TrEMBL record:
CDD domains: pepsin_like
Keyword line: Aspartyl protease, Hydrolase, Protease, Signal
All residue ranges annotated as the Peptidase A1 domain in the record: 137-471
GO BP annotations listed: proteolysis
SUPFAM superfamilies on file: Acid proteases
Protein name (database record): Aspartic peptidase domain-containing protein
Record organism: Lentinula detonsa
Keyword Protease carried by entry: yes
Amino acid sequence: MMEVALAFSVIFCAATLIPLVHCYSNEPREYTNIIPISRRSLLNRRTLAGDFDAVFAREEQQAVYQKYWTMAPEILAGIFPAPENDMEKFVQSKYVNEVSPDTDNIMEQVVGPVDVSNVLLTMSMTDVIVNEVDMLYYGDLAIGTPGQGLTFDIDTGSADLWVPSPWCSTCTKNHYDGSQSSTYVDKGRRFAVSYGSGTVYGTTASDTVAIAGTAVQNQTFGVVYRESEDFQEYPNDGILGMAFGTIAQSRGLTVFETMMKQGKLKWPCFSVHLARSQETGSEASVLELPSESYKHRHWINNVGQMCWGCYDPTKATGPISWFPVSHRAYWSIPMSAFEVAGQRTMFDEVIISAIDTGTTFCYFPASIAAEIYSQIPGSKDASESYGSGFYTYPCASKVDLGFVFGDVAFRLHPDDFNLGESVYNPAECMGGIFAMDATEWPSNLAIIGDEFLKSWYSVYDYSDGGRVGFAPSVNNQ
């Protein structure tokens, strides 16, 4: 009888698009914010043989070193730069104790499809593709009073919001002008952040940030007066960090944490659906981007989505599996093993895996990457051709590869693992896992990027000490 009641409750929630947590409480049912997010897609047609973009891959590999290396040792040891921004006690008192959800039953099942267009506010994500590989996702926000619209890379691997200022000579796209906002406050603190795609410098400010019609007051962010060249090839204006505020360089709360503090959200989680590129999809607009080496075309396909304070059952085809975060800094969860063709190999030590929507590929310590490729028939170390950390495998293979969280293997789609043909041998393709130098990278840290997340609808929950959930994505239907 309980199973029937549970099934009815889940179906009712999905049909009405009420966050399922509320179907297990006595709280009044209210709709929450779903913000569509789009994946930036840069389509790059090369004239050389092969279609693997080695330039981008090398740049991102080096950028990942830069993004994580400074703070990784301290964070892995549990030392946070800004512990005053830890929201755990607030979430426990204001959400968990009041709602009292049964976490073993929440969102055990999802049903669909359901039309969300009339009942949910969505923030679309734009998909950017280089050589048919999804590279980055961004969405729209408005900052100031009146609001100034800008686009932002959605990044669970960092914790700061930053925007370019009118005084930024290296910022080639839209900017935010605090002098035009009646709610702008100059905070006066220096601001600098290194990301996977470059470094920015500026000062801090606060203002109103509007997300799909929901206003967040007094949000602290960086106003940038200098950004590195890495950012100039991408169409987004700034970055929206969605990691824990304990690692925010601004020393302020993240936008999501401020929304929780101000009572804008009914559930302390956000969910991300990353669309897999479809060249035959409708072309909403085309944007030519500057580049010395490539011609880029930017397709906007509003099929990716970010859901603030909620979970959209139309983006998943099965139940959520939950995993507690290792540290309330990055959205990092323990990985115990990997599988190739169903054959499981256990790691000698647990690997802490940072789930990072702002990184395209997957990065492992060199010894782990070598072990993974050793299980893929025909794979080869391609360091001599492409640089340290690169591997190839036979293009004819459909690699059945999965990462083991808990005791469950979560598989990468073979098309996402395949990054394209090698320039040197069209029978060999580049693998989507890159090795990180043992002298410069922690032996127990991996970065799990969009290559994996396109196969899994991911949920990031502040309750229960922080946890990440994966549900099968509709991308794989």
